[in-house]
Design a protein that fits this description.
single chain; about 30% strand; 6-stranded parallel β-sheet; 2 domains; 5 helices; Elongation Factor Tu (Ef-tu), domain 3; about 240 residues; alpha/beta; Rossmann fold; 12 strands; globular
Length: about 240
């Protein structure tokens, strides 16, 4: 599907977000799914090519698609952040099954490390818009407050939707940096102390860098979660 870049902004330090508008009608997808994005004429090139897979960060109700990524300085990301608005890109998708379970009697707990927030932003916005009955908890870990993307959206949805609970934490708080949430690493103790659901029956979703996914899988096991109820999606750096 051909689309056009219509907006670009930085939702946090070191993070770039971009919005594309499909030119052939809206893309139908489920919250949490991904798309492959191809830049037909990139401004910069390297051996990794001009296509990447991104989780869709926007709601399925939005006719435009939003994606977000850490700005690593790669040729692809430099092209993405420098190309003019209106530039054509190609979308292939949606793909993936990292989506919210249907049985609302089982609580959902999302654990996001850094840019792993993107599929959960889509799932949570969709749940708020459709007033889904699921009990949702987001554990969102970043190094600093400035690096915590989409916090205004998340805090607003937590106020609006009584069944959505936000547990944001940072591991390297800076002196004087405004932060009204939690601090410290997410480990088994953090989960048992702050996540107010039955850990034995909840469905857990983990997204972020590989080291985060591995650490969260071990923490959930130590906290008493059923390994069969843990779903994970790694975000590789490029």
């Amino acid at each position: 599907m051909r689309a056009h870049l219509v907006k670009r902004f930085e939702p946090a330090t070191g993070t770039g977000a971009f919005v594309v508008e499909p030119g052939e009608g809206r893309l139908t997808f489920k919250a949490g799914q991904t798309c492959d994005l191809l830049i037909p004429a990139p401004l910069h090139e390297d051996e990794k090519g001009a296509v990447r897979t991104f989780s869709i960060a926007s709601s399925p109700a939005d006719p435009r698609l939003m994606f977000a990524t850490r700005l690593t300085g790669s040729a692809f990301k430099r092209s993405l952040m420098e190309m003019p608005l209106g530039t054509e890109v190609d979308l292939d998708g949606p793909c993936g099954s990292f989506t919210l379970h249907q049985n609302a009697s089982k609580a959902a707990v999302f654990l996001a490390g850094g840019i792993g927030i993107t599929p959960f932003r889509s799932i949570i916005q969709d749940a708020v818009e459709r007033k889904l009955p699921h009990d949702l908890t987001l554990v969102y870990s970043n190094r600093t407050a400035a690096a915590s993307a989409f916090m205004a959206d998340l805090t607003g949805w937590a106020r609006e939707h009584p069944r959505f609970h936000l547990l944001a934490t940072i591991t390297e708080p800076a002196p004087g940096e405004p932060w009204e949430h939690l601090t410290g690493l997410v480990d088994a103790a953090f989960i048992t102390n702050h996540v107010r659901v039955d850990l034995r029956t909840a469905i857990f979703y983990v997204a972020g860098p590989g080291v985060f996914v591995k650490a969260m899988s071990e923490a959930l096991s130590s906290a008493g979660a059923d390994p069969d109820n843990v779903r994970a999606e790694e975000f590789a750096g490029y």
